[in-house]
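Pasting as-is:
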Amino acid sequence: MAAQEEATPVPSAPEAMRRPSLVLFDVNETLSDMSVMGQRFADVGAPSQLAVTWFASLLRDGFALTAAGASASFAELGSGLLGVQLAGLSLDRGLTAAVEHIMDGFTSLELHPDVVPGIAALADLGLRLVTLSNGSASVAAGLFERAGIKDRFEQLLSVEDAGVWKPAPGSYRYALDRCEVKASETMLVAVHPWDIDGASRAGLTTAWLNRTGSPYPGYFRRADVEVEALGPLAQILT
């Protein structure tokens, strides 16, 4: 007689963690699959691996401006940085056209496979779902409309309206004020440890979406919960 398969254990929340009433999501890479952006670089004759360097540098410059007391939109920084990084390369079109082609890639991104069922599971728990992105709210809106889940979200927020980029404390305060909710009642979900750290320091509970099985940097505050997909997070918050 074959041995009975052992049931997969259901993850549980830490005993000290309060169940949130609102779940705040990062968007770029957390919900959207940005791996296809490399093809956009290849399309114009640039190395596809430059996409990773470009996005990391874009975040760096957004953080730097925030630290200096200034701010710029994701699109402004993204386009300006492309103009610098693509200059001097043997492109198959003019620089302006190349920049436009790459930036237009954000209008056709898709969600990671776990996102649609995961968002549905979280919404079915009665949780308020809101996004807070360093990108534009319109990009998030298009992403969710294409996937048919835009109506699951109460609001789509951007740091462009906060005047400071995540992980500055003011970015999270902006979202809390807009949603009229306390930090202690809110959970941030993100793939970026720097976002997890910033939200934790702002008083939010946090869930690190570790899609790649990477170790967590020891110099950041650890997340309250670590999951590999949104489905397990819904199980934890049940």
